[in-house]
Amino acid sequence: MKKNSFGLRGLTLSALATALLAALPAWAVDPFTLRDIRVEGLQRVEPGTVFASLPFRIGDQYNDDQGSTAIRSLFALGLFSDVRLQINGDVLVVIVEERPTVADIGFTGIKEFDEEVLKKALRDIGLTEGRPFDKALADRAEQELKRQYINRSMYAAQVVTTVTPGERNRVNLNFSVVEGDIAKIREIRIVGNQAFSESTLRNLFDLDTGGWLSWYTKSDRYSRAKLNADLETLRSYYLSRGYLEFRIDSTQVAISPDKQDMSVTVNVTEGDRYVVKSVALEGEYLGREQEFKSLVTMRAGQAYNAEDETSTVKAFTDYFGAFGYAFAQVEPTRDIDRANKQVSFVIRSQPARRVYVRRINVEGNNRTRDEVIRREFRQLESAWYDSDRIRLSRDRVDRLGFFTSVEVDTQPVPGTPDQVDMTITVAEKPTGNLTLGAGYSQAEKLSLIAGIRQENVFGSGNYLGIDVNTSDYNRQVVVSTVDPYFTADGISRAIDVYYRTTTPYSQQGGDYRLVTPGATIKFGVPFSEQDTVFFGIGVEQTRIEPGTGLPDAYDQYRNDFGETSRSIPLTLGWSRDGRDSALVPTQGRLQRFNTEWGVAGDTRYIKANYQFQQYFPLTKQYTLAFNGEIGYGKGLGGRPYPLFKNFYGGGLGSVRGFDQGTLGPTSLIRTGVSAGEQVNIGGNRSLALSAEFITPFPGAGNDRTLRMFGFVDVGNVYGENDTRPNARDLRASVGVGLSWISPVGPLRFALAHPIRKFPNDRIQKFQFQIGTSF
Question: I need a surface site. Which of 1, 428, 475, 537 has the fewest CB within 10 A?
């Protein structure tokens, strides 16, 4: 009878083969035919898993080489801490010892992280509930947890792992963490600079030594990624000012013994400042050399600027791409004359082969439907590659406002030199928006406006919104929905249904009401990539319910034209949006023009308004913005302009510092507790002009989500009895404000001081609103 056994315990896979070869002479067996195979020691692993890993079956010829292969295969499963083979005659017995399984993972002492974040990090290295466990995996888990804390500048964090055995060969893991304090940057030094002061260069960095807003910006927390970005900013600063040979020699990061303070030292060599001597073109330019020359931004006699060099190469590449040459090679070479501090450029170009797009892939849209993104594409599949259309496609997807980032990547198709695949990767953001507005005045005290909006309902790209005004004198409910692709050609459809009940002109009491139910439907037709024309129709009824506190102007209108006015207005509008961002614009222009024409019903009128916004980027940090809006209304057919269609001025969106809607013509109240008062009733003409200087918030560095602005507002509202608007009647204010991209939407505070006002004007110095520009 043959009886022999051999196995391995505690050996790594890399040493397994060597150990087997050394052991074979002692445990060698003669080849024989397997009559049976048995497995012993299994608890949770299925027998079929073991049998599937064996290189032999019952009835096969068995030898020592096959035994060695079987042990290697079983260890490779990662399920066993020990594997042995025992031979009893012509029966092979496989004896295994299973590795324990992780039953539960817990944490104590965790404050900086949510437990799910850490569990995901451990899952990425293979440690999770239900998976086999060994000591090496626990060590890796400790290192991974420490790495997570280091990423948040918590270098003093300590992790201790406790393994508690459980029933059925399972273990419970608990990671006890002593987080310690956050290590903060106490010093940043730049050594070797001569042309620029150290303070000037340090101000370029997002990392700093902290300030009173560091709790929000976390700019004093060291991060290797942030430091690398700052070093690139430093390098770009020098290269864009002529220092062609600037280099960063070394960077030292030191941490104090208690792991609480860090210092960063950057050693630089500036080199000399160079001037561009000449720029020449060589290579193939598709017979359009003059057109390519016009794209060159480097000029002889000017200081070398790396940004000009980069933009020229990009402009060449994009222009080649507009003709289908996706992989054009554009290489600038420099001839440096160090004696005269000059540099000459030769740009060599080779368009290579013209290609077309085989397939367009969309990634990252877990919620938004593919079609919502694809319908914004202007680059089509199976069409010639066009860089202009690709860039436009990317911008259109970004302007949807559903994503925090939109990236386009182009990959060549293997084995096919004239085809590429394009992948557009998006990162989704919450598209629900809570809008809140508030103002305080001595008369109305606190008034509130609220709205709930969803810009991407169920990932369809459609808009649905509900706005509610809850002030004492103006109450309304508006339900709006927009389908931006009502037709496949991109014609949009917007439907508004509203119900308003207002008592706007009696601030001290009154029981009259203006009740206005209505509905509109509007279609938008895109005429170009930036221009859209809108047209629509509506139906509206306004009922003037008499009572105390009603201004004379409304009482007279009710007596002349009845208590109820019905109207069927037609709408026509146009918009052009060329801003770089709808949320935090820094450059570009927005224009809107809207008209409303009452063509049927009890009223006949026309109402028009035009808005213009322009943003000028002064530097990376500073932006100058202008906003202007004018409105005009006129009665038609011998009828006056309806009072309830008046424009209003003052407050947010108009002249800040004045109470909302209180500029312009007035009317006397004859009844109620407000009898004898003159109240503002708006007018048929309005003007509002604003200028803002936008800067980073002190202590926030280059963070664009938190910014300050100073502003100047000018404007007023005029009535039909005013022969013409008079500049001497304009109101004006100056002030400062704060804009913050908060979790619930863009928030703007404004503290204004009227610099041109009149005795009866109502002042409201502090105002804020969420979800508005200007």
Answer: 1
